Amino acid sequence: MDSLYKELQQFGDVSLRKFLAKFTTFKIGGPADRYVEVTDTKKFTDLLNFLSGRGVDYFLLGGGSNVLLPDNGLRGVVIRVKTNKMTVDGNMIMAEAGVSFGAVVTKAVQQSLTGLEWATGLPGTVGGAVRGNAGAVGGDIAHSVSKIKIWQDSEIVELTPDDCAFGYRDSMFKRSTTVVLAAWFTLSPGNPRESLAVMQEILKKRAGHYPSYPSAGSFFKNIPLKDWPHPTSELPAAFVEAGRVPAGWITEQAGLKGLAVGGAMVSREHGNFLINHKDATQADVLALVEEIKAKVYNTSGVELEEEVQIVK
Ligand SMILES: Cc1cc2nc3c(=O)[nH]c(=O)nc-3n(C[C@H](O)[C@H](O)[C@H](O)COP(=O)(O)OP(=O)(O)OC[C@H]3O[C@@H](n4cnc5c(N)ncnc54)[C@H](O)[C@@H]3O)c2cc1C
């Protein structure tokens, strides 16, 4: 056993050559040279200090619901973030980075708090959601979070939402090595019965809308109206109202539903979901992405941008 393996054991459960596919919703991804599961925030930050002090590369894996991992896996250390503390103080819920976002939504309703119903059915963890400014049905992290605790260069500090430069499926976390440790959500007193009714509606919509095959959710970002190269008068009114043209509609207009490369395919149910319909590899998905981008550009002059984090 190499010495790094032994040293890593002080921070969590360590495995060598752990296949990562099963830790992702896309079910794609080769082995991690070293894989560490952290469940305690102090050990998590100690591990980050240790690895950055040693100059060892690491990759953070939360729920694996917004990543496309490489077929040959990852070198260095994969840190599986499973920190799981959650506390309630009046209208405020604190959740550590590894807490599933579904558990935060459930906790809110149990505490008769409202404001997170939009995240019903959102896969993944708090850390991944904050980094990507996850959002749905008109809600998002940027408008729900009140404080974020982060690790940056061996420092632990608290940030405000403004400090995070949140944008559409974007934040400063995407352009830095800053690590989300925990987040606080300040909510309002609500009525659990009403919240549950809203959540059931959202779940019904999601069930009817999203394919059942493995995927990483919406693959491309929707196009802001300002970047749409054609007269908006030709667009469905709902898109103009929303200020965005859905990427799924654009691929559908280009006739791409069902387009496949190897085991990867554009879902027939949702034009912005790329699915793993049979033992897809990252190479299959990337080849499919290139084909989609070229065809969409040739038919509508739009350049699609990935929402999913492609890891190489
Ligand atoms: C069926 C399906 C439906 C989806 N629906 C939606 C939706 O409605 N709206 C939406 O916005 N998204 C949606 N997604 C995408 C995904 O669920 C979200 O992006 C989610 O917030 C990702 O969280 P995660 O923990 O799975 O992140 P991961 O996939 O594990 O990681 C994503 C990125 O965040 C980084 N990361 C992970 N933890 C941390 C941390 N603690 N600090 C800093 N960086 C970190 C990782 O290194 C990686 O770069 C969907 C996905 C699926 C599969």
Can you describe this structure?
- This protein has 312 residues and is α+β, with helices and mostly antiparallel strands.
- The protein has 3 domains: 79 residues, Uridine Diphospho-n-acetylenolpyruvylglucosamine Reductase, domain 2 (2-Layer Sandwich); 108 residues, 2-Layer Sandwich (Uridine Diphospho-n-acetylenolpyruvylglucosamine Reductase, domain 3), CATH 3.30.465.10; 100 residues, Uridine Diphospho-n-acetylenolpyruvylglucosamine Reductase, domain 1 (Alpha-Beta Complex).
- It has 8 helices and 21 strands.
- The strands form 7 sheets. The protein has a 5-stranded antiparallel beta sheet.
- Strand 11 and strand 12 form a beta hairpin.
- The radius of gyration is 20 Å and the shape is globular.
- The two termini are 26 Å apart.
- The mean pLDDT is 97.
- Flavin-adenine dinucleotide binds next to strand 3, helix 4, strand 9, strand 13 and strand 15.
- The site of flavin-adenine dinucleotide has 32 residues, from strand 3, helix 4, strand 9, strand 13 and strand 15.
